[in-house]
TrEMBL record:
One of its GO terms (molecular function) is isomerase activity. Coiled coil: none annotated. Keywords: Isomerase. The keyword Isomerase applies. It comes from Alkanindiges illinoisensis. The lineage of its organism: Bacteria, Pseudomonadati, Pseudomonadota, Gammaproteobacteria, Moraxellales. SUPFAM superfamilies: ClpP/crotonase. This is Enoyl-CoA hydratase/isomerase family protein. Belongs to the enoyl-CoA hydratase/isomerase family. InterPro entries: ClpP/crotonase-like_dom_sf, Enoyl-CoA_hydra/iso, Enoyl-CoA_hydra_C, Enoyl-CoA_Hydratase/Isomerase. GO terms for biological process: isoprenoid catabolic process.
């Protein structure tokens, strides 16, 4: 299923156009292992061109999102480094997370992060590349790397993109923990909820909104938004956007969306 026959670290459930991906190592607060990295990459590879999957919900089992990298894996890599006499294992593991977070960032689907409990290190990075971030008020965020004598190597660029350089400096260099309300204030999450019931209700409402958007238009819009932050020639980008707009308006989706609006009904893709 979705590139993995028997996932060891994930729970996967498809609900129509929505794929629920649950990090499933609750005994370790869903710490990120090499196996989890490989499985997540496999899932996002498998759905890259799947037009039937329009949203991915990322959350963690057992009341936590993700507490960062697995310390046990770090110990194994330290042993590997001592035996091999090089740092190749560390580089492989760290760069693999960068591959994953970049993949999630550019996934054509709408990525919804449901954040509870620990949202630390790598979990913090995943939160920063979600399209919609919903949060329990008692979640604990932080970039603890410098306090452990390491650095947020693969996460840093995405944190800066999410909240800006000034806030990223403060969080990364102090390494302090903060709650959902502070996460909302500085722009990591979009909404904060005081109960599981309210959080799950908001998720349901969010998914309803996603289902009402046109599938292809949503994919093109997400790519356009990403491109707008990376270009040096704005005029060229706007020229390309105009071409994409014309294609969207004249497409089957554009025709159906317009007719649905005129006829005061939901478009077919929202069924």
């Amino acid at each position: 299923m979705f590139g993995i026959e028997n996932p060891q670290t994930l729970l996967l459930q498809q609900d129509g156009a929505v794929l629920h991906v649950t990090l499933n190592r609750p005994e370790l607060r869903n710490a990120m292992s090499e196996t989890m990295l490989r499985e997540l990459v496999s899932v996002f590879n498998a759905i890259q061109d799947d037009l039937t999957i329009r949203a991915v919900v990322l959350r963690g089992a057992g009341g936590h999102f993700c507490a960062g990298g697995d310390i046990k894996d770090m110990a194994a890599l330290r042993s590997e480094a001592m035996t091999a006499g090089n740092h190749d294992g560390y580089i492989r593991f760290n760069r693999a997370f960068g591959t994953l977070i970049e993949q999630v960032n550019h996934a054509p689907q709408v990525v919804v992060a449901v954040l509870e409990g620990a949202v630390l290190g790598g979990g913090f990075g995943l939160a920063c590349v979600s399209d919609i971030a919903l949060c329990r008020n008692n979640a604990q965020f932080g970039l603890p790397e410098t306090g452990l004598g390491v650095i947020p190597a693969q996460i840093a660029p995405f944190v800066v993109q999410r909240i800006g350089l000034t806030q990223a400096r403060r969080l990364a260099l102090l390494g302090n923990r903060f709650d959902g309300q502070e996460a909302a204030r500085i722009g990591i999450v979009h909404e904060v909820f005081s109960s599981d019931e309210a959080l799950n209700e908001a998720l349901s409402t969010t998914l309803q909104h996603i289902r009402r958007t046109a599938p292809n238009a949503s994919r093109v819009t997400k790519a356009l938004l990403h491109n707008s932050t990376q270009v040096s020639d704005l005029s060229t980008t706007l020229d390309q956007a105009a071409i994409q707009f014309a294609a969207a308006v004249s497409s089957d989706e554009g025709t159906e969306g317009t007719m649905a609006f005129i006829q005061k009904r939901l478009p077919k893709w929202a069924d």
